[in-house]
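User: Round two. Same drill as before: sequence, then structure, for each protein.

Assistant: Same drill it is. First protein:
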Amino acid sequence: MFSTRSAKAASKVLATAQRNFRVCVVGAAGGIGQPLSLLLKQSTGGNITSLSLYDVAPVTPGVGADLSHIPTAIKVDAFAGPENMKKALEGADVVVVPAGVPRKPGMTRDDLFNVNATINMNLAKACAEVCPKAAYLIISNPVNSVVPLWSRVLSKAGVYDKKKLFGVTTLDIFRANTFSAAKAGTAVSVPVVGGHAGKTIVPLFSLATPAPGFAAGEELDKVTNRVMFGGDEVVQAKAGGGSATLSMAAAGAAFTEQILSALSGKTVETIAYVDSAVAKTAYGTDFFASKITVGKNGVETIEDTAAKGNEYERKLVAEMVPDLTQQIAKGYEFFASQQ
């Protein structure tokens, strides 16, 4: 039987494992930012004390007021306008970045880059000054290029910690899991590696648990392509009304909760697009999405998950590496052009 003394001891261990963090959502008034902020305001993980919302849009204080009426203990602050960006970032332990323009029909993630790169470069500079020790969770597309850009900005400022810079690829995993569950009739967990754009997204169905049962050939090709281009499916379905916002918000919130749990002292296994010496050796790319373990100081280990895939999947990885390398270089080149 679980004694009162044991219960008290367990509570003490839980308390020491948790910390109270300030999370800043940049782009909080947007299509992803609002539902993401809602989910974080409703967090039950016990790790968020305050939520700082920032956007250039003047409606941001209204978003903050709206969320503040939800009866949870998480305090909400809201800031609007470029002049208040640094104030919003003050004291942030985790900065989640869905800021930027959404994709429209016919647009690729690369088409977004010129606009979103400028937004992210200015934000990275502000973070380097105001909250240099924070963990940065980048949702802004194109992630494959924007994350390397962040690394250059933070490096120039002398505050780059590659263990705390993450490209959020959780939505790719959500899609692979969802499509697999529809086939298998039960929940399935699928690792998805590579990058976060088109064919750089490689689902490893051979490593899924349990196996979803896709037949090699046309069926496997079709579901693989659907994971790779699931974002296009949403863009087209919204007929010019936007891109994936609700699913991305859910994925972003889930990943944020994982990082908060890790920073609180627990070891968490997840998948994210990170600065990877493992990928550099294996594929010649500076950044790669693969399985990682994260602890209180950020990324602890990186696995070459792609190498564990079957021949079909390893071929997809080999074919996409040139594109991923080019997209990483695009982030570096933008940074160099601004110097």
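Second protein:
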Amino acid sequence: MDLRHLEFHFDIVCPFAYLASVQVEALCERVNASLSWHPFLLGGVLQSTGRDPMFTTKLPPAKARHNLLDAVRWADYLGIPFAWHPRHPVRTLSAMRTLVALANEENQIQDVRTIHALYKAYWVDGLNLDQDDTLVTVLDQAGHDGHDLLTRSRTPENKLRLRNVSDAAAERGIFGAPALFVGEQHFWGQDRLHFVEATLQGSTT
């Protein structure tokens, strides 16, 4: 068990996973820790844990407004670009399949540029990643043959792989995004990164 390593588990659809994604690399550099990126389908995990994948569209108005403001406030605090997608939540199944297609056997992605490109497309540019032509363009700009990658992502084997990694995430105890692990210590949310950093430094939380 490597207690100097951070696992970052994510889905592009989650705004708080986006907010965490722009912080974790610098965090790991500060404490000399390694970092791995692990995609999963948040909707699949929510279904596995008995929650409605569309729960964010059914929140009481006051709670929905608070969530919106909370993300905007964090983005302002961190000084990062952020805009609520006008169609949120946009289905990210195709985008997450492409990321799983890029992952190794341990469901780790080395190509971090593509992760950041997809996050920017959704949470900065407001693009519709559920539309094939848009997704292909983003993948092209990230250095891939977007059409080829999208085609590979839709093989039966890769579709099954995304289901399997999402089921495995739920079995491990993941119930939302972002999910972060140091060893078997599980942290949820971008507002708990100070706990993550302290744990990587060997402190108790």
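The two ends are 18 Å apart (CA to CA).

User: Perfect.
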